[in-house]
Amino acid sequence: MTGRGYAPVWCYWVVLPGLVVFWFLIAMALDSSLLPTPLAVGRTLYAEAANGELWLNLGATLARVAVAFVIAMGLGVTIGVVMGRSETTNALLDPLLLLMLNLPALVTIILMYVWFGLVESAAVLAVVINKVPNVAVTLREGARSLDPKLESMATAYRFSRWQRAREVWLPQLFPYLMAAMRGGLALIWKIVLVVELLGRSNGVGFKLNMAFQVFDVATILAYSLAFVAVVQVIELALLQPLERRASRWRRPELAHA
Amino acid sequence: MLELRIKGRDFERPVLGDIFTQIRRGDRICLLGPSGIGKTTLLNAIAGLDRRTPATAFRGRETLRLGYLFQEHRLLPWRTLGQNLAIVGAAGTEIDRLLESVGLTGYQHHFPDQLSLGMARRAALARCLAVEPDLLLLDEPFASLDPVRAGELRTLISELLDAHPHMGMLCVTHDASDATALANRLWYLDGHPAHLQWDAPVASDVETIVQSLRTSMPLL
């Protein structure tokens, strides 16, 4: 229940710029086309952005990530909460969950493409199947840790189903939802790239595959960095403000004097 | 108002034995008994929170509105006091009035964890009143408060009961003096499984009753 303060802003600007400097120095020392300098990567990025390729492929990948993310979160949260609340459901589904967790992403992707063909729905389905077990496991832990005291309070005061979900469960599940969302975003976009590499004709993964054929490392790095930047923006602009807003009630500066 | 019929059988080690009694409108009952005997279990059974108390029958519980003051405040920590009252049905000026009645005017926008123990307990008491209860269930309302705060809360509860003469009270306590201050009826729960060993009115001969309780139960 104890709140934590926030780290100073400069903390976010130490490690990543340091990494870029380090990269620059290594690239200069090696002087090889297999490790282009940050400047060369920047030029490639600019060229790709100027001819529109970057936005097209980035957009295609982002659309797949978004669709897969929404479906996987919806299914995973539902399954996880039900498993966390019902021992019977948990006993029934647990072996399946373990199997799915340990199923390599590549296997699902190949199977989906083999069974459904090289189509969009197969690609998204493969990503969803990979992600749902992770979300479910996280949310199951959350549902198990729901405070039974607040639960009995909700019963005594005859909360409706909706009130119970919104007022009692959601705030307690929030940290688990955030963990699932963060992990989800990171995992999903990685899998989406593999899906695109294996069987789509656009997207960042497709572009990486093309560049790989000709050992074009600058393009590979340019596209990777572009996508990492997008994920960073989502984290900073969407997830962190959401988290701050939701944990307002445990901020230390509001504590009782 | 409420007919209480608890059958403690069909269970390996029931906490509660057979209990059959009635709670009438305006009854102010103090429930005494040794620690761990099942006083809270009895409150939970009345509130429908204890699934392990089998064959429990109540007549009148369906229509009975209960205000349950738990040992902890059990307010939603992510909601302000005002929101906590609104969730159980209080609206607008009623929230101000409720907070005022427990001496928390101006605390509408505070979160429960910003309050001291005694204040949080009074806020929880305001929530009990927000449902306009027929029966107040109080689980050790004076526990872990210093004597001054405990005395103030006791006065407050007594005043609230006087203001709502049709509201009943069932108050779990360890302190016989709470009974003399608040109750017009005394229950004593004891035994394995627990029975109501004593169900007596507290009338003018309060001292006599407490005295007889004292002699028969050395714990008091």
What are the key terms here?
heterodimer; A: 257 residues; mainly alpha; MetI-like fold; globular; B: alpha/beta; Rossmann fold; 2 domains; six-stranded mixed beta sheet; three-stranded antiparallel beta sheet; 9 strands
- Helix count of chain A equals 10
How much is the average pLDDT of chain A? 89
Radius of gyration of chain A: 22 Å
Proportion of residues in helical segments of chain B: 25-40%
So what's the overall shape of chain B?
Answer: globular
Question: Which band does the percent of strand residues of chain B land in?
Answer: 15-25%
| Uncertain ranges of chain B | none
Helix/strand/pairing category of chain B: alpha/beta
CATH class of the largest domain in chain B: Alpha Beta
Query: What percentage of the residues of chain A does DSSP assign to strands (E)?
Result: under 5%
Instruction: List the helices and strands of chain A in order.
Output: HHHHHHHHHH
Biggest sheet of chain B: strands, sense, closure?
Answer: 6 strands, mixed
| CATH topology grouping of the largest domain in chain B | Rossmann fold
Can you tell me the CATH architecture of the largest domain in chain B? 3-Layer(aba) Sandwich
Count of extended strands of chain B? 9
Q: How does CATH name the architecture of one domain in chain A?
A: Orthogonal Bundle
Shape category of chain A: globular
Topology overview:
The complex is a heterodimer of chains A (257) and B (220).
Chain A: H1 15-30, H2 38-50, H3 53-85, H4 87-102, H5 105-116, H6 120-144, H7 148-156, H8 161-199, H9 204-213, H10 217-246
Chain B: E1 2-6, E2 19-23, E3 28-32, H1 39-47, E4 56-59, E5 66-69, H2 81-87, H3 93-101, H4 117-130, E6 135-139, H5 147-163, E7 168-172, H6 176-182, E8 185-190, E9 195-201, H7 206-216
Parallel strand pairs in B: 3-7, 3-8, 5-6, 6-7
Antiparallel strand pairs in B: 1-2, 1-4, 8-9
Helix pairs in contact in B: 2-4, 3-4
Structure explained in plain terms:
The complex is a heterodimer of chains A (257) and B (220). With 257 residues, chain A is an all-alpha fold. Chain A has a domain at 62-199: MetI-like fold, CATH 1.10.3720. In chain A, 79% of the residues lie in helices and 0% in strands. Chain A has 10 helices and no strands. Chain A has helices at 15-30, 38-50, 53-85, 87-102, 105-116, 120-144, 148-156, 161-199, 204-213, 217-246. The radius of gyration of chain A is 22 Å and the shape is globular. The model of chain A has no long low-confidence stretch (mean pLDDT 89). By secondary structure, chain B is of the alpha/beta class. Chain B folds into 2 domains: 2-65 and 133-216, P-loop containing nucleotide triphosphate hydrolases (Rossmann fold); 76-131. In chain B, 34% of the residues lie in helices and 21% in strands. Chain B is built from 7 helices and 9 strands. In chain B, strands 5-6-7-3-8-9 form a 6-stranded mixed β-sheet, with helices on both faces. A 3-stranded antiparallel β-sheet of chain B has the order 2-1-4, with no helix packed on it. In chain B, strand 6 (135-139), helix 5 (147-163) and strand 7 (168-172) form a beta-alpha-beta unit. The longest helix of chain B has 17 residues, at 147-163. The radius of gyration of chain B is 17 Å and the shape is globular. The interface between A and B is medium-sized, with 18 and 22 residues.
